[in-house]
Design a protein that fits this description.
Rossmann fold; iron; metal-binding; PSI_iron-sulfur_center; 10-stranded mixed β-sheet; 2 domains
Amino acid sequence: MNVVVVEKAESYRPEVVGPAIRRLLDPLGGMGAFVRPGERVLLKPNMLAAKEPERAVTTHPAVLREVIGLVREAGAVPLVGDSPGVGGIRRVAEKSGLLAVIEETGAELVPFDETVTVRGEGMFREFAIARPYLEADRLINLPKLKTHEMMTMTCAVKNLFGAVVGAAKAGWHLKAGADRELFARMLLEIYLLRTPDLTIVDGILAMEGNGPGSGDPHHAGLLLAGANAVAVDVIAAELAGIPKKLLWVERAAERLGLDGWDRTTIETRGVAVEEATLPPFRLPHLSDVQFGLPRCIKNRLRHYLTSRPCEIPGACKLCGICRDACPPRAIAIRDGRLHFDYHACIRCFCCRELCPEGALDVREGALMGIVKRFV
């Protein structure tokens, strides 16, 4: 059985979150069950973009602080690393409040700039993965519980996409991002290259709506932990009320037969699931009929069926971040406004995910309302 622990924590105040994380890890044997004295332990938070903690885009600094403290108590050396979606790691760490914690605790901020090419054992032949991610003695995954416009939910497995460095993320979106099933398969193959020793989910202030970067903060008051990231995702989705048919990573894990996808193999401890279950999260505009239509029809009508990003009039500052981040180069700036090539657009929504102004919205495909009546 895979054990996933659920705990409640109403705030990030030290006197609340500290004891809550200790209670969270106790049924798993405490931090000492996962790290040994002298080991270099990489903590991998969600550092998507330079946003304040109250925006719920990144892992909260209070959670990072407590985990660093527990790693030190176990006699290990804490490192903190990631490859942000936009901006340098130091800028993202500073804005999100994580840098202050790293400096105060004496942990080491590790940029993901050097890569190692690793041969895959699945559909994808090789991956360029951050060297610190692969070479750390232990890996502790610290995701944020959020909705996601492409994968419906981002949590434990999706957070590991940060091991792909910089512009290579756009390359993977271009290679696999036009097909959610394929993208989920790619995420799982990255997960299998280096499975985390422990996952601790920050769900105290989660995100719903059009996540992972433009959604709305949602006070869930929860922490989750487990050794199996897939199982942690399954329980996180259950607590958030997200139906399995929309969970692309979990469905792909089932097809691959990965340990953790089957709810009957997961034992929950801590707070009972029925006590922790939340009103269903408000989900993003995932209206692209990835299921329910034959592939041949879906491909031909894709432009008219799928939701697509669009500019909010007057909100865009023309910074060019969306244009530069777009994997298929489907965005241009002309005559003082954004222009989208929707036939080239792969609907990965990286533009919305990374826009610092929240200046992009989603427009539903012209035929989508009709099709929804029949699928």
